[in-house]
Protein backbone atom coordinates (compact mmCIF):
# COMPACT_ATOMS: atom_id res chain seq x y z
CA UNK A 1 0.00 0.00 0.00
CA UNK A 2 2.82 2.43 0.87
CA UNK A 3 4.51 2.04 -2.51
CA UNK A 4 1.33 2.99 -4.32
CA UNK A 5 0.87 5.90 -1.95
CA UNK A 6 4.35 7.24 -2.64
CA UNK A 7 3.76 7.21 -6.39
CA UNK A 8 0.66 9.35 -5.97
CA UNK A 9 1.97 11.66 -3.26
CA UNK A 10 2.64 14.74 -5.36
CA UNK A 11 -0.71 14.33 -7.10
CA UNK A 12 -2.35 14.34 -3.67
CA UNK A 13 -0.71 17.65 -2.83
CA UNK A 14 -1.81 19.23 -6.11
CA UNK A 15 -5.30 17.82 -5.59
CA UNK A 16 -5.49 19.39 -2.14
CA UNK A 17 -4.26 22.81 -3.24
CA UNK A 18 -6.58 22.89 -6.24
CA UNK A 19 -9.73 21.79 -4.42
CA UNK A 20 -9.24 24.00 -1.38
CA UNK A 21 -8.29 27.05 -3.44
CA UNK A 22 -11.39 26.58 -5.59
CA UNK A 23 -13.55 26.38 -2.46
CA UNK A 24 -12.04 29.46 -0.88
CA UNK A 25 -12.01 31.69 -3.93
CA UNK A 26 -15.53 30.66 -4.81
CA UNK A 27 -16.88 31.91 -1.50
CA UNK A 28 -17.32 35.27 0.14
CA UNK A 29 -14.04 36.36 1.73
CA UNK A 30 -15.79 37.20 4.97
CA UNK A 31 -16.49 34.77 7.80
CA UNK A 32 -19.16 33.98 10.31
CA UNK A 33 -17.51 36.28 12.85
CA UNK A 34 -18.63 39.78 13.70
CA UNK A 35 -18.63 42.07 10.67
CA UNK A 36 -18.04 45.32 12.53
CA UNK A 37 -15.09 47.44 11.49
CA UNK A 38 -11.63 46.36 12.63
CA UNK A 39 -10.77 47.49 16.12
CA UNK A 40 -7.64 49.43 16.99
CA UNK A 41 -4.55 47.69 18.28
CA UNK A 42 -3.87 47.68 22.00
CA UNK A 43 -0.09 47.18 21.73
CA UNK A 44 0.41 49.92 24.31
CA UNK A 45 -1.06 47.74 27.05
CA UNK A 46 1.39 44.89 26.45
CA UNK A 47 4.52 44.59 28.59
CA UNK A 48 7.38 42.69 26.96
CA UNK A 49 10.94 41.80 27.82
CA UNK A 50 13.61 43.40 25.62
CA UNK A 51 13.48 41.68 22.22
CA UNK A 52 16.54 41.59 19.91
CA UNK A 53 16.32 43.98 16.96
CA UNK A 54 17.31 41.20 14.54
CA UNK A 55 14.13 39.17 13.87
CA UNK A 56 16.15 36.01 13.17
CA UNK A 57 17.60 35.99 16.70
CA UNK A 58 15.75 34.11 19.42
CA UNK A 59 14.12 36.26 22.05
CA UNK A 60 14.51 36.39 25.82
CA UNK A 61 11.89 33.79 26.68
CA UNK A 62 12.22 30.05 27.04
CA UNK A 63 9.60 28.35 24.87
CA UNK A 64 7.18 26.37 27.00
CA UNK A 65 4.69 23.93 25.50
CA UNK A 66 1.51 22.09 26.32
CA UNK A 67 -0.40 19.41 24.45
CA UNK A 68 -4.10 20.16 24.85
CA UNK A 69 -7.43 19.29 23.27
CA UNK A 70 -9.43 22.10 21.70
CA UNK A 71 -12.85 20.74 20.81
CA UNK A 72 -11.86 17.50 19.10
CA UNK A 73 -8.47 18.74 17.90
CA UNK A 74 -5.20 17.51 19.39
CA UNK A 75 -3.34 20.80 19.69
CA UNK A 76 0.13 21.96 20.61
CA UNK A 77 0.62 25.34 22.28
CA UNK A 78 3.99 27.09 22.56
CA UNK A 79 4.26 30.17 24.78
CA UNK A 80 6.71 32.52 26.52
CA UNK A 81 7.76 30.72 29.70
CA UNK A 82 9.70 32.02 32.68
CA UNK A 83 13.36 32.21 31.59
CA UNK A 84 15.46 29.63 33.36
CA UNK A 85 12.51 27.44 34.32
CA UNK A 86 13.71 24.81 31.86
CA UNK A 87 16.78 23.99 33.98
CA UNK A 88 17.14 20.25 34.49
CA UNK A 89 14.25 19.40 32.17
CA UNK A 90 14.35 17.38 28.94
CA UNK A 91 13.54 19.04 25.65
CA UNK A 92 10.36 18.24 23.75
CA UNK A 93 10.71 15.84 20.84
CA UNK A 94 8.82 14.48 17.85
CA UNK A 95 7.64 10.93 18.49
CA UNK A 96 7.12 9.89 14.89
CA UNK A 97 5.42 6.67 16.00
CA UNK A 98 2.33 8.81 16.49
CA UNK A 99 2.15 9.18 12.71
CA UNK A 100 4.44 6.42 11.41
CA UNK A 101 3.99 3.28 13.55
CA UNK A 102 7.05 1.53 12.07
CA UNK A 103 9.46 4.32 13.01
CA UNK A 104 11.81 4.09 15.97
CA UNK A 105 12.67 7.60 17.24
CA UNK A 106 14.85 8.29 20.28
CA UNK A 107 14.01 11.21 22.55
CA UNK A 108 17.66 12.12 23.06
CA UNK A 109 18.50 12.19 19.34
CA UNK A 110 18.91 15.88 18.39
CA UNK A 111 17.18 15.45 15.03
CA UNK A 112 13.90 14.67 16.81
CA UNK A 113 14.22 17.34 19.47
CA UNK A 114 12.17 20.52 19.69
CA UNK A 115 13.61 23.63 21.36
CA UNK A 116 10.83 23.84 23.94
CA UNK A 117 9.93 22.27 27.27
CA UNK A 118 6.68 20.74 28.48
CA UNK A 119 4.40 22.41 31.01
CA UNK A 120 6.62 25.29 32.11
CA UNK A 121 4.95 28.24 33.83
CA UNK A 122 3.78 30.99 31.51
CA UNK A 123 5.71 34.22 32.15
CA UNK A 124 2.66 35.95 33.63
CA UNK A 125 4.59 39.04 34.68
CA UNK A 126 4.49 40.12 31.04
CA UNK A 127 1.89 40.23 28.28
CA UNK A 128 -0.81 39.99 27.22
CA UNK A 129 0.87 38.14 24.38
CA UNK A 130 -0.31 38.23 20.74
CA UNK A 131 -1.26 34.89 19.18
CA UNK A 132 -0.21 33.05 16.02
CA UNK A 133 -2.41 30.17 14.83
CA UNK A 134 -0.60 27.97 12.32
CA UNK A 135 -2.07 25.34 9.97
CA UNK A 136 0.03 22.43 8.72
CA UNK A 137 0.03 21.07 5.17
CA UNK A 138 -1.00 17.84 3.47
CA UNK A 139 0.45 14.73 5.10
CA UNK A 140 1.92 16.75 7.93
CA UNK A 141 1.28 17.20 11.66
CA UNK A 142 1.17 19.80 14.40
CA UNK A 143 4.89 19.85 15.30
CA UNK A 144 6.34 19.70 11.77
CA UNK A 145 7.31 23.41 11.69
CA UNK A 146 8.49 23.56 15.30
CA UNK A 147 11.62 25.63 14.53
CA UNK A 148 9.32 28.49 13.55
CA UNK A 149 6.96 28.03 16.49
CA UNK A 150 9.61 27.99 19.21
CA UNK A 151 11.31 31.00 17.65
CA UNK A 152 8.10 33.03 17.70
CA UNK A 153 7.34 31.95 21.28
CA UNK A 154 10.82 33.03 22.39
CA UNK A 155 10.02 36.53 21.13
CA UNK A 156 6.70 36.91 22.94
CA UNK A 157 4.02 35.12 20.91
CA UNK A 158 1.66 32.33 21.90
CA UNK A 159 1.69 29.85 19.00
CA UNK A 160 -1.01 27.25 18.36
CA UNK A 161 -1.02 24.39 15.86
CA UNK A 162 -3.45 21.46 15.76
CA UNK A 163 -3.45 18.11 14.02
CA UNK A 164 -6.05 18.45 11.24
CA UNK A 165 -8.03 15.21 10.82
CA UNK A 166 -8.36 13.85 7.29
CA UNK A 167 -5.24 15.47 5.90
CA UNK A 168 -2.53 14.10 8.18
CA UNK A 169 0.13 11.55 7.27
CA UNK A 170 -1.67 8.65 8.90
CA UNK A 171 -4.95 9.54 7.19
CA UNK A 172 -3.33 9.48 3.76
CA UNK A 173 -1.44 6.25 4.44
CA UNK A 174 -4.71 4.56 5.26
CA UNK A 175 -7.12 6.25 2.88
CA UNK A 176 -5.01 7.75 0.07
CA UNK A 177 -6.22 10.93 -1.61
CA UNK A 178 -9.81 10.04 -0.77
CA UNK A 179 -9.09 10.86 2.87
CA UNK A 180 -8.72 14.52 1.90
CA UNK A 181 -12.43 14.81 1.27
CA UNK A 182 -13.09 14.58 5.00
CA UNK A 183 -10.61 17.34 5.91
CA UNK A 184 -11.85 20.78 6.96
CA UNK A 185 -8.78 22.85 7.78
CA UNK A 186 -10.63 26.13 7.45
CA UNK A 187 -13.32 24.97 9.87
CA UNK A 188 -10.72 23.57 12.26
CA UNK A 189 -8.94 26.92 12.24
CA UNK A 190 -12.15 28.79 12.94
CA UNK A 191 -12.73 26.50 15.93
CA UNK A 192 -9.22 27.30 17.22
CA UNK A 193 -9.83 31.03 16.74
CA UNK A 194 -13.08 30.82 18.70
CA UNK A 195 -11.23 29.08 21.54
CA UNK A 196 -8.53 31.79 21.45
CA UNK A 197 -11.09 34.56 21.67
CA UNK A 198 -12.92 32.84 24.54
CA UNK A 199 -9.74 31.44 26.14
CA UNK A 200 -11.76 28.28 26.56
CA UNK A 201 -11.36 24.53 26.28
CA UNK A 202 -7.68 23.51 26.37
CA UNK A 203 -6.60 27.16 26.23
CA UNK A 204 -8.03 28.11 29.61
CA UNK A 205 -4.51 28.14 31.11
CA UNK A 206 -3.88 31.27 29.00
CA UNK A 207 -6.86 33.19 30.34
CA UNK A 208 -5.93 36.83 30.79
CA UNK A 209 -2.49 36.29 29.25
CA UNK A 210 -3.23 36.63 25.52
CA UNK A 211 -4.27 39.57 23.35
CA UNK A 212 -7.36 38.24 21.59
CA UNK A 213 -7.54 41.30 19.33
CA UNK A 214 -4.02 40.71 17.96
CA UNK A 215 -3.95 37.41 16.10
CA UNK A 216 -1.76 36.26 13.23
CA UNK A 217 -2.37 33.27 10.98
CA UNK A 218 0.29 31.17 9.27
CA UNK A 219 0.03 28.07 7.14
CA UNK A 220 2.07 25.78 4.93
CA UNK A 221 0.86 24.42 1.57
CA UNK A 222 -2.79 23.36 1.97
CA UNK A 223 -2.71 25.04 5.37
CA UNK A 224 -1.80 28.29 3.65
CA UNK A 225 -4.79 27.91 1.38
CA UNK A 226 -7.05 27.30 4.40
CA UNK A 227 -6.10 30.61 6.07
CA UNK A 228 -6.16 32.81 2.96
CA UNK A 229 -9.84 33.72 3.35
CA UNK A 230 -9.95 34.17 7.13
CA UNK A 231 -9.23 37.89 7.29
CA UNK A 232 -12.83 38.45 8.39
CA UNK A 233 -12.29 36.51 11.60
CA UNK A 234 -12.39 38.85 14.56
CA UNK A 235 -8.90 39.71 15.77
CA UNK A 236 -6.98 38.37 12.76
CA UNK A 237 -4.64 41.14 11.61
CA UNK A 238 -1.79 39.36 9.79
CA UNK A 239 -1.89 36.34 7.45
CA UNK A 240 1.24 34.52 6.24
CA UNK A 241 0.74 31.70 3.69
CA UNK A 242 3.89 29.69 2.94
CA UNK A 243 4.36 27.65 -0.27
CA UNK A 244 0.72 28.27 -1.07
CA UNK A 245 -1.52 30.99 -2.50
CA UNK A 246 -2.44 34.52 -1.51
CA UNK A 247 -4.72 36.33 0.92
CA UNK A 248 -8.20 37.75 0.44
CA UNK A 249 -9.44 41.00 1.91
CA UNK A 250 -11.32 40.88 5.21
CA UNK A 251 -12.76 43.07 7.92
CA UNK A 252 -9.79 42.80 10.24
CA UNK A 253 -6.71 41.73 8.29
CA UNK A 254 -4.17 44.52 7.77
CA UNK A 255 -1.08 42.82 6.39
CA UNK A 256 0.00 39.76 4.42
CA UNK A 257 3.32 38.05 3.79
CA UNK A 258 3.36 35.54 0.92
CA UNK A 259 6.37 33.21 0.98
CA UNK A 260 7.64 30.58 -1.44
CA UNK A 261 10.66 28.64 -2.60
CA UNK A 262 12.23 29.32 -5.98
CA UNK A 263 12.82 25.57 -6.49
CA UNK A 264 9.40 24.44 -5.25
CA UNK A 265 7.90 21.93 -7.70
CA UNK A 266 4.56 21.76 -5.87
CA UNK A 267 3.57 25.33 -5.06
CA UNK A 268 5.68 26.64 -7.93
CA UNK A 269 7.03 30.21 -7.97
CA UNK A 270 4.38 31.15 -10.53
CA UNK A 271 1.60 29.86 -8.24
CA UNK A 272 2.97 31.77 -5.26
CA UNK A 273 3.53 34.97 -7.22
CA UNK A 274 0.02 34.77 -8.69
CA UNK A 275 -1.35 34.52 -5.15
CA UNK A 276 0.69 37.55 -4.14
CA UNK A 277 -0.48 39.54 -7.17
CA UNK A 278 -4.11 38.76 -6.31
CA UNK A 279 -3.75 39.82 -2.66
CA UNK A 280 -5.59 43.17 -2.36
CA UNK A 281 -4.21 44.38 0.99
CA UNK A 282 -0.85 45.60 2.28
CA UNK A 283 1.48 42.79 1.24
CA UNK A 284 5.00 41.50 1.00
CA UNK A 285 6.49 38.73 -1.12
CA UNK A 286 9.56 36.72 -0.09
CA UNK A 287 10.94 34.04 -2.43
CA UNK A 288 13.80 31.91 -1.08
CA UNK A 289 16.53 30.65 -3.46
CA UNK A 290 17.43 26.95 -3.64
CA UNK A 291 14.37 26.18 -1.51
CA UNK A 292 11.70 23.56 -2.18
CA UNK A 293 8.30 22.83 -0.71
CA UNK A 294 9.64 21.58 2.63
CA UNK A 295 11.71 24.68 3.40
CA UNK A 296 8.96 25.81 5.78
CA UNK A 297 8.97 22.61 7.86
CA UNK A 298 11.52 21.25 10.33
CA UNK A 299 11.58 17.58 9.32
CA UNK A 300 14.29 17.48 6.64
CA UNK A 301 16.95 16.27 9.10
CA UNK A 302 14.66 13.38 10.08
CA UNK A 303 13.93 12.50 6.47
CA UNK A 304 17.46 12.66 5.12
CA UNK A 305 19.05 10.77 8.02
CA UNK A 306 16.60 7.87 8.05
CA UNK A 307 17.32 4.47 6.52
CA UNK A 308 13.70 3.38 6.93
CA UNK A 309 10.80 3.29 4.54
CA UNK A 310 9.34 6.66 5.45
CA UNK A 311 6.26 6.31 3.28
CA UNK A 312 5.15 9.74 2.04
CA UNK A 313 8.08 11.45 3.73
CA UNK A 314 10.47 9.79 1.27
CA UNK A 315 8.74 11.44 -1.68
CA UNK A 316 8.28 14.79 0.02
CA UNK A 317 12.05 14.81 0.52
CA UNK A 318 12.41 15.21 -3.25
CA UNK A 319 10.85 18.65 -2.96
CA UNK A 320 12.99 20.51 -0.47
CA UNK A 321 15.11 18.03 1.50
CA UNK A 322 18.51 17.01 0.25
CA UNK A 323 21.95 18.39 -0.64
CA UNK A 324 20.66 20.07 -3.81
CA UNK A 325 18.61 22.47 -1.68
CA UNK A 326 19.52 25.23 0.76
CA UNK A 327 20.67 24.01 4.16
CA UNK A 328 17.52 23.72 6.35
CA UNK A 329 19.11 25.81 9.09
CA UNK A 330 19.61 28.69 6.66
CA UNK A 331 16.15 28.51 5.06
CA UNK A 332 14.62 28.37 8.54
CA UNK A 333 16.58 31.48 9.50
CA UNK A 334 15.21 33.31 6.46
CA UNK A 335 11.63 32.24 7.19
CA UNK A 336 12.02 33.27 10.83
CA UNK A 337 13.52 36.63 9.85
CA UNK A 338 10.72 37.53 7.42
CA UNK A 339 7.73 36.14 9.30
CA UNK A 340 8.82 37.46 12.69
CA UNK A 341 9.37 40.96 11.30
CA UNK A 342 5.92 41.03 9.69
CA UNK A 343 4.11 39.61 12.72
CA UNK A 344 5.88 42.00 15.10
CA UNK A 345 5.23 45.02 12.88
CA UNK A 346 1.46 44.77 13.37
CA UNK A 347 0.87 42.52 16.38
CA UNK A 348 3.51 44.25 18.53
CA UNK A 349 3.32 47.67 16.82
CA UNK A 350 7.05 47.46 16.06
CA UNK A 351 8.41 50.05 13.63
CA UNK A 352 11.84 48.47 14.14
CA UNK A 353 10.65 45.15 12.74
CA UNK A 354 8.93 46.92 9.85
CA UNK A 355 12.27 48.43 8.93
CA UNK A 356 14.09 45.12 9.16
CA UNK A 357 12.03 43.27 6.56
CA UNK A 358 13.04 45.65 3.78
CA UNK A 359 16.69 44.63 4.19
CA UNK A 360 16.11 40.93 3.56
CA UNK A 361 17.46 40.85 -0.01
CA UNK A 362 20.68 42.55 1.06
CA UNK A 363 21.11 40.27 4.04
CA UNK A 364 20.34 36.97 2.27
CA UNK A 365 21.78 36.62 -1.22
CA UNK A 366 19.28 35.55 -3.85
CA UNK A 367 16.14 36.27 -1.82
CA UNK A 368 13.51 38.05 -3.89
CA UNK A 369 11.49 40.65 -2.00
CA UNK A 370 8.58 42.89 -2.97
CA UNK A 371 6.34 45.21 -0.98
CA UNK A 372 3.12 46.96 -1.87
CA UNK A 373 1.07 49.11 0.45
CA UNK A 374 -2.69 48.67 0.47
CA UNK A 375 -4.20 50.30 -2.58
CA UNK A 376 -0.78 51.06 -4.07
CA UNK A 377 0.53 49.82 -7.38
CA UNK A 378 4.13 50.80 -6.71
CA UNK A 379 6.65 48.65 -4.90
CA UNK A 380 9.09 49.73 -2.26
CA UNK A 381 10.51 48.96 1.14
CA UNK A 382 8.80 49.52 4.43
Q: What secondary-structure arrangement, pairings included, does this model have?
A:
Layout: H1 2-7, H2 9-25, E1 62-70, E2 73-81, E3 92-93, E4 113-114, E5 117-118, E6 129-135, H3 146-154, E7 158-162, H4 169-175, H5 185-198, E8 210-220, H6 222-227, E9 236-242, E10 255-261, H7 269-277, E11 283-288, H8 300-305, H9 312-316, H10 328-347, H11 351-357, H12 360-363, E12 368-372
Parallel strand pairs: 1-5, 6-7, 6-8, 8-9, 9-10, 10-11
Antiparallel strand pairs: 1-2, 2-7, 3-4, 11-12
Helix pairs in contact: 3-10, 10-11
Q: Could you explain the architecture of this structure?
A:
This protein starts with a helix and ends in a 10-residue tail after the last strand. It has helices at residues 2-7, 9-25, 146-154, 169-175, 185-198, 222-227, 269-277, 300-305, 312-316, 328-347, 351-357, 360-363; strands at 62-70, 73-81, 92-93, 113-114, 117-118, 129-135, 158-162, 210-220, 236-242, 255-261, 283-288, 368-372. Helix 10 packs antiparallel against helix 11 (351-357). Mean pLDDT is 85; it is low at 1-11, 13-42 and 375-382. Helix 7 (269-277) links the parallel strand 10 (255-261) and strand 11. 53% of the residues are buried. The chain has one domain: Alpha/Beta hydrolase fold, catalytic domain (Rossmann fold), CATH 3.40.50.1820. The chain is α/β, with parallel strands linked by helices and 382 residues long.
